[in-house]
Design brief:
Layout: H1 2-24, H2 34-62, H3 69-102, H4 122-129, H5 142-167, H6 191-194, H7 201-205, H8 210-236
């Protein structure tokens, strides 16, 4: 039950982190606004809540000495994925802090970057937060308060990562994947794309037919004999 719960929470954290990453890329662009900044705030707070919910059961499972080898390997894979989400979240929070300081909403003398992209990320944030509406009222002090709060949250995420590394020692390079490298390319979803060239993966891996190899050898020998005969006739003439 703990493993299934961790998988579900990790899947939600992965979606929230990806959503936050997408929203951070629009800071300072044509779609930037207070609405976007508030969506960023809610999304990163949602991601931190999920991270806190995952950390306790995952840490307890990996510190259990009575855990079986197969179960431990599975929890270690979840741990590596969890650490990757936190690293990405921290990096995006730092990026949001830098962009928010460079492109302040209440500084008309410093215009935002005109990227040519219009619209807003309300729908994306709503899917990550399971919310129907993310409309907010304008607040003149929101920009400054959000920057201060973001700085505190970055320190909290840093502390969480440090605490995880101190309690559980799972080097990422020691964790083995369940599938071989490039296994997803051989899935049924990529079967159509791989057959565009006219040769499927199974046909490439299939051993050569002896009868076909013999026929090819005989044909090559006949072709070489014909070329040699043609050269001799040309010299005699």
């Amino acid at each position: 039950m703990a493993r299934e719960e961790c998988k579900a929470l990790l899947d939600a954290l992965n979606k929230a982190t990806a959503c936050y990453h997408h929203l951070v890329l629009t800071v300072g662009g044509s779609a930037d606004s207070q609405n976007l900044r508030e969506e960023l705030q809610k999304t990163r707070q949602k991601a931190q809540e999920l991270a806190e919910a995952i950390r306790a059961p995952l840490t307890a499972a990996l510190r259990d000495r009575g855990l079986g080898a197969e179960e431990r390997a599975e929890f270690e894979r979840l741990w590596v994925a969890f650490s990757g989400c936190l690293d990405l979240l921290e990096a995006d929070m730092r990026r949001a802090l830098a962009l928010g300081a460079a492109f302040q909403l209440r500084a008309p003398r410093r215009p935002l970057v005109r990227t040519g992209v219009a619209g807003c990320g309300t729908g994306i944030a709503a899917r990550a937060l399971s919310a129907r509406s993310l409309r907010h009222e304008a607040n003149s002090d929101f920009d400054v308060n959000d920057q201060l709060e973001l700085e505190r949250e970055i320190l909290q995420v840093e502390e969480m990562i440090h605490d995880m590394e101190m309690k559980v020692n799972v080097p990422r390079w020691t964790v083995q994947a369940r599938q071989a490298a490039g296994a997803e390319l051989l899935s049924s979803g990529s079967a159509g794309a791989s057959s565009v060239g006219g040769v499927s993966t199974e046909e490439r891996a299939r051993p050569c037919d002896p009868s076909k190899a013999l026929a090819a050898t005989v044909f090559s020998a006949v072709l070489l004999a014909a070329v040699a005969l043609a050269v001799c006739v040309a010299k005699l003439s």
